[in-house]
Write a structure and sequence with these properties.
By secondary structure, this protein is an all-alpha fold. Helix content is about 75%, strand content about 0%.
């Protein structure tokens, strides 16, 4: 994954959080697994090497998409809401 790919895919995931599509489309399993794949790909590409904020964001995002896709959590569960708060904080903190 190139730097351009990382930037584009991170922007896509940020948009999913800002618009709340990640929870609004929780019943679309294909979409959830696509989001989880993108987030995991970013995380693997960065691999904690530089301590970049995209890595932590991707990990938190992956957890939300994974658990919604598996129906382990519901969109209004405290776990999902806490992770969304973390994602919102990360977006604000990094100016995304």
């Amino acid at each position: 994954m190139t730097e351009v790919d990382i930037a584009e895919q991170t922007s896509f995931l940020v948009e999913q959080v800002k618009t709340r599509s990640i929870v609004d489309q929780a019943d679309d399993k294909r979409f959830m697994y696509r989001l989880a794949f993108i987030a995991r790909s970013i995380e693997v590409a960065l691999d904690d090497a530089d301590g970049r904020p995209e890595d932590g964001f991707a990990n938190d995002f992956w957890q939300v998409a994974r658990d919604l896709g598996r129906e382990v959590e519901s969109p209004d569960s405290s776990f999902i809401q806490a992770n969304l708060d973390q994602l919102d904080g990360s977006i604000s903190e990094n100016g995304w």
